[in-house]
Amino acid sequence: MENGATHARQRDPQRKERILAASAELVAERGYHSVGLVDIGARAGIVGSGIYRHFPSKDAILVALLDKVMRRLSDGAAAIIATAPSDAEALSALVDDHVRIAIEDRAVLAVYHREGQNVAPEQQRMLRRAQRHYVEEWVHVLHHLRPDLADAELRVAVHAAIGAIQSTLFFRSGLPPLRLAELLRTAAHSCLGVAPVQNVVNTESLVH
Fold it and tell me: Do the beta carbons of residue 197 and residue 162 sit within 8 Å?
């Protein structure tokens, strides 16, 4: 009995991640309202009713997806800022990390931007607070590198840089991942007005 319980605990997290991945792909392709639990279950390779073991509703899946991508961005930014040896390296690392997420987790990030209005107002407020905090992490770093810019100008530059990176969410370029990453990185740094330093985030995984 104990071995069986251990096996079940090991299997469930993988199933939950398959549900989230399948949901992100389908919602990014079709839109939130055009996707049902049966569709998600079929894409994830499980029966639709099995989803209820992990999520009480389709809305709960969407909340989990949005929270997942925002936590990934926020945790990455916090780790970068805590460990980067200089502001220039921190900024390049922030750019590289966001580029990698936009390419590797394209579907999840696209869902975040297209479907955020479909969660409850309280959840929307939480997501907006987390997003503002994430932007402020960039602004704080950029402030030291661009003392010529006023606060409002810093925020415009940061939003422009993030927008440049996320432009890849809305069309398929067909470019190899590493070439796409290079172009997005260059565009983001142009918006920030700061030259990039040598890559400080490993982009080797983009080859695969």
Answer: no
CATH of 58-207, picked from 3.40.50.720, 1.10.357.10, 3.40.50.300, 1.10.240.10, is 1.10.357.10
C-alpha span between 181 and 77 (Å, rounded): 18
User: Which residue in 26, 27, 54, 29 sits closest to 42, CA to CA?
Assistant: 26
Is residue 200 pLDDT above 80, yes or no?
A: no
The answer to whether residue 7 scores a pLDDT higher than 50 is no
pLDDT tens string 175-195:
999 999 999 999 999 999 999
pTM (2 d.p.): 0.82
Q: Which residue has the higher pLDDT, 188 or 124?
A: 188
pLDDT in tens, 64-103: 989 988 999 999 999 999 999 999 999 999 999 999 999 9
69 touches 101 (CB < 8 A): yes
With a CB cutoff of 8 Å and minimum separation 6, the contacts of 95 are 161, 165, 185, 188, 189, 192, 196
Break the chain into its structural domains and give their ranges.
Answer: 1-55, 58-207
- Are 88 and 192 within 8 A, CB to CB? no
Nearest Cα neighbor of 207 from 126, 61, 135, 104 is: 104
SS3 54: coil
Q: The domain 1-55: what is its CATH number? A: 1.10.10.60
